[in-house]
Each structure stands twice: as structure tokens, then as C-alpha cells.
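In response to a reviewer's request, we include the raw inputs and outputs for one of the modeled complexes. The two entities were modeled together in a single run.
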Amino acid sequence: MRAILTAWLFTALGLWLVGAVAPWVPRGVLPDPALLAAVALGLHMPGLRGIIAVWGVGWQQDFLSGAPLGLFALLQLLAWTATRLGERQLALARAVALVPFTAALTVAQALLVTAIAGGPRFDDPRTLPVLVLHAIVNALAVPFASRIFGAAVGRVDAPELSRSGMRFDAGAPLR
Amino acid sequence: MRELFERLRVPLLLVLLATLSLVVVASDRRVMASGAQERGFLPGVLIEIAAPVQKVLSLPAELARSGWGRYVALQGVRGENERLTSRVAALEEENLQYREALVESGRLQRISEMRIDFEAPMRPAQVVGQDVSPWFRSVLVDRGGTDGVRSGMPVVTETGVVGLITASSPHAGRTMLLLDAQSAVDALVQRSRARGIVRGDGTDRLSFELFVRGDDVQVGDIVITSGFGGVYPKGLRIGEILEVQADGERLLQRALIRPAVDFGRLEQVFVMLWRGPTLDLLYEGAGDTPAPQADLKPAEAPGS
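The model returned the following C-alpha cells for the whole complex.
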């Protein structure tokens, strides 16, 4: 539970930073903290905890945007699932795979936003530069976000895992 | 059986939460498509939580932006400034209405009896949150149902139209900006009376699609709300023509508008406590409480 709360706290901080800086910079320049969190959670938090954590991350983004409610909860769930599926197949632990994967995920999310909520209009020539920039920024930021999430979740998880491990392996010799 | 459940619980939860999210999106989309409505219970609770959270979250940025003195030494001046800005905004809108009345009386005197003018009180509101997604253009304001702010009410500043309240809870309101791709406003050129639709496309410019190809539109013309959409009152300033696009293949003539409002610097806005007849009809059907009718008063027809 503490790991989930930590993930939400980190995402909230990221969203706050983006929300605070957004009026002062061109659109697309800032990364999407929720997407980065979804990818990082896909890499570092599998299972039920990961799903619950990423769903909460999506809802945070829904609260703070003008999107129809539930849209980003759905999209970040899909991003987490795609990361889980791609983790082994694409060896996403390596930055060389993670960076283009995140760029592709950003584009896919923008397309889904358009399909579901009529978001960015791709027939407008001014949309493409924003999308490309946003994809590049997300891609460049994801290794750092993944490392930060990994360290934070790992640190919070360590005592929890050691307690449950000892309980589970009560009869087995400690290694 | 238990082993099977253990194996399937992750995909099952995934499908369950994805379906739940999709249901909420569909429900919310229906709400937005109808022009804007009060939120249902669950989304209302969520937006109600979001407002104070965002207010707290945006406090450091607000402090940095406004400076410490604004909160301590200049508290009284700030309050007075807000009152005066509110008054100026009201007078400017009134002035625009009078200018509109002058134009109308000159050119449309015969149908002036059809014109309904009004005065509406304005409620100042602080912008407490910006959209965190680059694909949506909205802000959260700190006024909601308890202040008389309802979905469907126009939001303005002293310089022009900001957008429309699309969702409200007791203490917060989500404002869809004119820039949002979902926004469309019936508008006209103040000088030539050429009519069209002003659309947002998610960028910092607005697109103006004129109904009649070859209508008289020039760079620098002021574009105002026409009032025909039944959503915004007539005569609110939208922006200024920046570029007229002469595209031979298009059926409609297009122009680019520079918005009158600086959306990058939105801090204080004014919610007009008025809701257009179109939206009022929608709300009546939905059993919604109507906008404060006592605040609306039909004006005298020009010349009468």
C-alpha cells in the first residue's frame, strides 16, 4: 500500500509541476508525468498493485485536465498493460528500447484521445510539431522517471517484502 | 478453481477497471455533448475533491507568481483592485452592448423589436488549475454551485470571452476554453456583420469559418459573439482577425483569430450568471435547476 501511495505522490508532484509551468512554456515541451508513471509502474510494479496504482495515476490526470472523466484512467491502464506486455519481448529495461517505446506510446495515446474525445486535430498542421515534441520529451524523460520510480518503490517495498518473505518462508533456511 | 482465479485475477481486474473507466468516459461524453450539465454524483464528488487539491497544489506557483507582498502587504489593495476590475469588466461589457445597440439601430431598426438585450451580474473567480494535458484546454475555477455558478454559464475577462463552464460542483467549476478542440461559438464580424463559427483547435489561435464565401472580412476586424447559438450572449468580444485564408478549394471561407484574452496569463475571470436559452431548455428537460432568472431582464429595444 505504501508503494502505491508513493507512486501517487510522485505523480501528483509531477502533475503539479507541469500544471504550474504549463502556462509559461510552449505546448508539448513538458513531459506527461502520468504517462511516465504508467510506464515506470509497468516496469517496476507488476500485478494487482500495479493496476490499482496506475488506475489512480490516471484518475489524478483526469481530475487535473479538461478531458472527459475516466479517459486518462483508461489510457494509463492501457499504457501500463502495453509496458507489461512489451517488457520481456522488447527488453524495456534497456533505455535503447524504452525510449522509442515511450515515444510510440505518446503518439498512440494522442490518437486514442482524438478517437475517444476529439482531442488534437491531426488535420491541423500545428498539431504535428506539438505531438512530435511531446513524444521526444516523454521519451527522453522516461529513463529518469523509471529510475526514480524504481528507487522510490524499491525503497518503500523493501521492508514490506522482507516481512512477507520471512512469513512465507518460515520453515525454509534463509539465503 | 482457486488456482485459476489466482492466475486470472490480474487480467480480470484489468478488464473490470478498463470497462469501468470506459463507462465513466461514455457517461461524461454524453454530458459534454449536450452542451454541459451539472455533474452526476460520482464525477461531482471527484471534481469537488479536485478543486481544493489543485488550489493547494497551485499555491506555491501562485505565491511565486504573485509575490509575497500580494498576500501580506497588498491584501487591501488587491481586494480593491479585484472589485474595480470586476466593475470595469461589467462596464466594458455594458459598453459593448451599447455599441452593439447603436449598430443595430442603424442597420436593423425594423427588426429591433426582435432583439433581446440583458444585463447579467458577474461573479469573480480565481483560476486554480490549468490543464495538465497538452490535448485539452481547460481551467478549473474556484466558484461553483454555492456561488450561483452553473454549467453553461459564459466565463469572461475584462478583455473578452474565456469559455464556458462545462462542469460544476458546489465549490468548483471546470471551464472549457475557447481554444479547446471541442469548443464552437456562433460569431460575427462587428464591422461587416459577416457570420460564422469560431472553433478552437487546441492551439493558441482560433479558427473562424464564415458561412458565406466572399463575406467582407479584413485583417484587424473585431469578432464578437452573435448570440445565435443560444449559449453566449450577443456582443462579447472574441478576438481580432489575424489572417484571412483564401483557399479556392474550400466551400467556406476561413480566417484565423487572435483571441482577445491572453489565455497564458489567466488568473482572475468573471462568470456571467446567465445561461442561454438553448442550454436552459436542455436543463429543463434534464430536471436541472434553472439559472437565476431574477438576474435576467430584457432590455428596451433600441429606439423604443
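As requested, we also summarize the result in words. The first helix of chain B runs from residue 2 to 33. Chain B touches chain A through 50 residues (CB under 8 Å).
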